[in-house]
Amino acid sequence: MATHAVINGSRRDFLLGAALLAMSPLAARAADAPLKIATVGAGRIGSALGGLWVKAGHPVMFSSRHPEELKDLVLNLGPLAQAGSVAEAIAFADAVLLAVPYRALPQIGKDHAPALAAKVLVLDACNPFPSRDGEIAVWARERGAGRATAELLPGARLVRAFNAIGAARLPEIASRRGVRTGMPMAGDDVHAIAVASSLMREINFEPVLIGPLTMGRHLVPGTPLAGEHTPAEIRSIAATLK
Q1: What's the CA gap between 152 and 103, in Å, rounded?
Q2: Strand, coil or helix: what is 43?
Q3: 3-state SS of 52-72?
Q4: What digits encode the pLDDT tens for the residues 137-172?
Q5: Phi and psi dihedrals of 170, rounded to 5?
Q6: Under 8 Å between Cβ of 156 and 193
Q7: CB 211 within 8 A of CB 11
C-alpha cells in the first residue's frame, strides 16, 4: 500500500523520512536490479530519458499511438529497447514514465488507471500548457499540476519530475563526470520516491525532494525551479515556496 504525505507531521518531517528511505536498501536494490520501464510517449522527453535508462541497463518499452514509427529509435538503442502500444508498454513495465501532452492524461486515466496503480512508480513529466492543451491545462494549473495528475490517475504512485529541463540538455547532463545537476521532485509515496531517486542517480541527476505531490505545482516551466540548478540551489529555492 502506498505511504502518503497525509501522515501526521510537518512537511519537514515528511522530507526527512522520504530522504532517509531514498538512501535505504530499497533504493540500493532498485539501482542494482534492472527495472522494466515504459515510456508513455516517445517524443523528445520520452525518447531522451528512455534512451538514457537503456544505456544504464534497464529494459525499456517505448510507446505511442503509432508504435510502428518508433522502429529506428529502438533499433539504434539495441536489444534492451522495444516499442509497443500504450497498453502493451504499461503491462510490460515495473515503472512508467508519462511524457505526453497534458491533454492526453484524461484518456490515459480512463483507459489505464487500474494498471498504472499497480506500478511501483509513475513518473509524471507532463506539463499543462493552456495554449496547447486547452481547458484541461487551465484546470491543472489552477489545481496544481501534481494534484491534478493524481486526480486523473487515481491510485498511481506518482512522482513529479523532469518537467522543466529541455530534452536536448538531458544527454549532455547525463554525460558529465564529477558533478550532478539537481532534479527537483515532488511525491507522496516514499517507496516511489526511493525508486525515482535511484533512476535519477543512474543517469547523473541528484534528486532533491521539495515536498509532497501538492508541491508539484512549482515543477513547471516558468517557475523559480525551472532550468538547471545545483542541489543546494534547489533546496534554497524550495525553502521559499509554499
Answers
A1: 11
A2: coil
A3: HHHHCCCCEEEECCCHHHHHH
A4: 999 999 999 999 999 999 999 999 999 899 999 999
A5: -60, -50
A6: no
A7: yes
Give CA separation, 97 vs 9, 176, 185, in Å. Answer: 30, 23, 14
Rounded distance between C-alpha atoms, residue 2 and residue 113, angstroms? 15
**Residues of the chain falling short of pLDDT 70:** 1-32
What pLDDT sits at residue 19?
Answer: 54
Grid cell in block for residue 211? 515536498
> What value, to the nearest 5°, has the Cα angle with vertex 164 and ends 187 and 166?
135
Residues near 203 by beta carbon (within 8 Å), at least 6 away in sequence:
49, 52, 53, 56, 170, 174
- Rounded Cα–Cα distance for residues 141 and 102 (Å): 11
Distance CA 44, CA 168 (A): 8
Structural domains in the chain? 11-238 (3.40.50.720)
Nearest-5° Cα angle at 238, 164 to 6: 100
Whether the model pTM is above 0.85: yes
- Under a CB-based contact definition with an 8 Å cutoff, are residues 51 and 99 in contact? no
DSSP code of 106? H
Angstrom distances, CA of residue 98 to CA of 6, 166, 173: 24, 16, 21
